[in-house]
Write a structure and sequence with these properties.
Blueprint (H helix, E strand, L loop, with lengths): L10 H9 L4 H10 L2 H5 L3 H14 L4 H13 L4 H15 L1 H29 L3
Helix pairs in contact: 1-7, 4-5, 4-6, 5-7, 6-7
């Protein structure tokens, strides 16, 4: 019986597709969150702090941080507040989860930079 393998597109093509909105899974995830902040009854800053704490607690993937960090910053979550969040949840989630979260946040930042660079290269024909 022949094995059927699906070839994945090159990483650059995938990043470009996500950046251009060609990402049905991400679109579905974003649709799921529409209106949750209002329904939570939390102010915007608190809402994003809770989301970031939950991401750390579940050892979320870097893309999950990428989807939330920008919005959290827009809501007023600054670096000092984020550090305070990490200090507050560390005793609950543990050292390993905090270290994992920090490394994934850094990777999310690098992913965001790669997306921006890919879009800029495409925009200017490089």
């Amino acid at each position: 019986m022949a094995s059927m393998q699906t070839q994945l597109p090159p990483a650059g093509d995938s990043l470009k597709g996500v950046a251009e909105g060609d990402a049905p899974v991400l679109e579905t995830l974003l649709q799921m969150t529409i209106g949750t902040q209002e329904r939570s009854g939390l102010d915007e800053k608190t809402y994003f702090l809770v989301r970031l704490a939950a991401l750390m607690a579940i050892d979320a993937a870097p893309v999950s941080y990428l989807l939330n960090i920008g919005a959290a910053a827009d809501a007023g979550v600054d670096l000092e507040t984020a550090r305070g969040l990490v200090v507050a949840i560390a005793p609950i989630v543990g050292t390993a989860r905090v270290a994992s979260a920090v490394s994934k946040i850094i990777r999310a930042g690098l992913l965001g930079e790669a997306l921006q660079s890919s879009l800029a290269d495409d925009k200017y024909g490089e």
